[in-house]
């Protein structure tokens, strides 16, 4: 367990202290952002108080992807030159991300601290260390807390299990489903992982049955919410207590499709402003995720607001096995194969594992032709989305005419 209950004094400051600090940082952030012509066009109104933030037009993730496509790699929104970045990343979308040289740039050490990570822990970091920043995010955070880190990545269950046994892994970082797979492999091989007592999971939903499985194994699990664009947004600090908002972000809940803030308790789209990253200022970034502000304060004594957690998507984009799946990717699959017909990606859940099935309308009926086409589409799913999926050829005009490209039918529980 960690020695100190709180990561720093920021977690217990008064509302007035936090608001004053946020306004000061927001003014400084917008001043820096105005040095970039492409940023300044959104920042023409003065900010006298935090409520004035809502006057700034949203920057949507989908818009950022298009802007980057037009002006690669960073849509000419960066204030610092690329040579001054610490890293450049490329996430699915595609979208380019970056980090700077300042300590704890992504801020995930606050979340790991709340999950009781600290000196003496041997952390198996099962996020990718290439292309996307997740591995680096948690690597830096764990090192700040003086943990020992094994950079595992997210593949090869058998080797992951061997390493856990050999080095005495005490803490896991990664998507929840992958931990479940490793634990089931340990059962199958009769390998004890008794030293594994804690986990930080993110990048995908923690389904109720999977969470219960971890509890039965006496693994203390916490979730956090963050993205490659924003870093840490919110984190769990206690069971059934929601997610505490990070101290260096301003989080708004707005009515989907608008920039209008909603009242606490109302479900809407998560909009985030990051206050301490200046290389490419992120101001009023519309994530496409749904959540709601919870009433009251955390039972842990932390005074910042809390959100209920991830409650789905405001658009059709969804997250599967830690990767975003977007309508544009489904269209890309069809374009690459020169298929000019309707399709629908079904995201489902079976045996506690996410599954993808792309239904594609086609006139082919010959068994060999159908199987050949299905294999080509499945291969292209892996190529475009970087996830494995199956394909089903269906008759022309058999899919609903409702504009839906992705249909997520998973049960996320309460």
Briefly, what is this?
This protein is an alpha/beta fold and 414 residues long.
Index terms:
four-stranded mixed sheet, 414 residues, 23% strand, 10 helices, eight-stranded mixed sheet, GMP Synthetase, Chain A, domain 3, single chain, globular, alpha/beta
How does this model look, in words?
The protein has 414 residues and is α/β, with parallel strands linked by helices. The chain has a domain at 319-408: GMP Synthetase, Chain A, domain 3 (2-Layer Sandwich). 27% of the residues lie in helices and 23% in strands. It has helices at 15-33, 37-40, 61-70, 109-114, 134-144, 157-167, 176-189, 208-216, 327-336, 367-385, and strands at 59-60, 87-91, 95-99, 122-125, 148-151, 171-174, 198-201, 220-227, 231-235, 243-245, 249-254, 268-274, 285-291, 306-307, 318-320, 323-325, 343-350, 353-361, 390-394, 406-408. The strands form 5 sheets. It has an 8-stranded mixed beta sheet, with helices on both faces. A 4-stranded mixed beta sheet has the order 1-13-12-11. A hairpin with a 7-residue loop joins β9 (231-235) and β10 (243-245). α6 packs across α7 and α9 crosses α10. The protein is globular, with a radius of gyration of 22 Å. The model has no long low-confidence stretch (mean pLDDT 93).
């Amino acid at each position: 367990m960690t020695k100190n209950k709180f990561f720093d004094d920021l977690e217990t400051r008064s509302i007035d202290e936090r608001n004053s600090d946020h306004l000061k940082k927001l003014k400084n952030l917008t001043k820096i952002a105005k040095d970039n012509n492409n940023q300044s066009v959104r920042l023409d109104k003065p900010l006298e108080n935090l409520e004035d933030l809502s006057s700034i037009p949203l920057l949507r993730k989908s818009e950022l992807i298009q802007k980057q496509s037009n002006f690669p790699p960073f849509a000419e929104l960066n204030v610092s030159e690329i040579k001054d970045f610490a890293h450049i990343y490329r996430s699915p979308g595609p979208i380019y991300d970056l980090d700077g040289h300042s300590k704890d740039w992504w801020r995930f050490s606050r979340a790991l601290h709340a999950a009781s990570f600290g000196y003496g822990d041997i952390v198996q970091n099962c996020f990718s260390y290439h292309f996307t920043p997740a591995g680096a995010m948690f690597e830096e955070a764990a090192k700040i807390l003086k943990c020992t880190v094994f950079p595992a990545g997210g593949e090869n269950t058998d080797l992951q299990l061997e390493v856990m046994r050999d080095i005495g892994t005490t803490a896991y970082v990664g998507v929840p489903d992958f931990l479940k797979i490793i634990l089931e492999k340990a059962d199958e091989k009769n390998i004890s992982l008794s030293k594994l007592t804690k986990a930080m999971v993110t990048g995908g939903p923690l389904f109720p049955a999977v969470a219960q499985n971890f509890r039965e194994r006496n693994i203390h699990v916490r979730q956090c919410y963050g993205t490659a664009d924003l870093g840490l947004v919110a984190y769990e600090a206690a069971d059934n207590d929601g997610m505490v908002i990070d101290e260096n972000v301003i989080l708004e809940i707005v009515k989907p499709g608008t920039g209008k803030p909603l009242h606490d308790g109302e479900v809407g789209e998560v909009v985030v402003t990051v206050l301490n990253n200046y290389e490419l200022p992120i101001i009023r970034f519309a994530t496409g995720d749904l959540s709601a502000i919870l009433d009251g304060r955390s039972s842990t004594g932390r005074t910042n607001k809390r959100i209920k957690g991830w409650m789905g998507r405001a658009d059709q984009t969804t997250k599967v096995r830690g990767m975003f799946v977007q309508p544009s990717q489904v269209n890309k699959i069809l374009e690459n194969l020169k298929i000019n017909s309707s399709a629908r990606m079904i995201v489902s859940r079976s045996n506690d594992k996410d599954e993808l099935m792309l239904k594609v309308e086609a006139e082919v009926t010959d068994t060999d032709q159908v199987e050949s086409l299905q294999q080509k589409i499945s291969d292209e799913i892996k190529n475009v989305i970087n996830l494995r999926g199956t394909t089903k050829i269906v008759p022309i005009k058999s899919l609903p005419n409702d504009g839906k490209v992705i249909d997520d039918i998973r049960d996320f529980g309460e």
